[in-house]
């Protein structure tokens, strides 16, 4: 999976601009760091994206269809 990191960072900055909640802003920063540094393994599945973190946690985006 190829991610346009500049576009990803721009989307993250826009998301951060829409909230004043410190927890959300920290979560967005952590996601950007995980994705852009290669700490996280991102796997495209048929109907969703699976993310494995450096700590061994596993998440699914669009889990309704995973």
Quick recap:
By secondary structure, the chain is α+β, with helices and mostly antiparallel strands. It has two helices and three strands; from the N terminus they run ααβββ. The longest helix has 16 residues, at 22-37.
What do you see in this structure?
By secondary structure, the chain is α+β, with helices and mostly antiparallel strands. The protein has one domain (5-65). Helices cover 44% and strands 18% of the residues. The protein contains two helices and three strands. The protein has helices spanning 5-17, 22-37, and strands at 41-44, 49-52, 58-61. It has a three-stranded antiparallel sheet with strand order 1-2-3, with no helix packed on it. Helix 1 (5-17) packs antiparallel against helix 2.
Q: Termini separation (Å)? A: 18 Å
Q: What's the structural domain tally?
A: 1
| Secondary-structure class | alpha+beta
Q: In which range does the helix fraction lie?
A: 40-55%
Query: What is the overall number of helices?
Result: 2
Mean pLDDT: 90
What is the percentage of strand-forming residues?
Answer: 15-25%
**Low-confidence regions:** none
Major sheet? 3 strands, antiparallel
Shape field: globular
Q: Which sequence of SSEs, written as H and E, runs from N to C?
A: HHEEE
């Amino acid at each position: 999976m190829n991610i346009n990191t500049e576009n990803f960072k721009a989307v993250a900055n826009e998301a951060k601009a829409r909230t004043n909640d410190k927890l959300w802003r920290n979560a967005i920063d952590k996601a950007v760091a995980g994705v852009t540094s290669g700490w996280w393994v991102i796997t495209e599945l048929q109907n969703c994206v699976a993310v494995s973190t450096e700590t061994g946690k596993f998440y699914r985006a669009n889990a309704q269809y995973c």
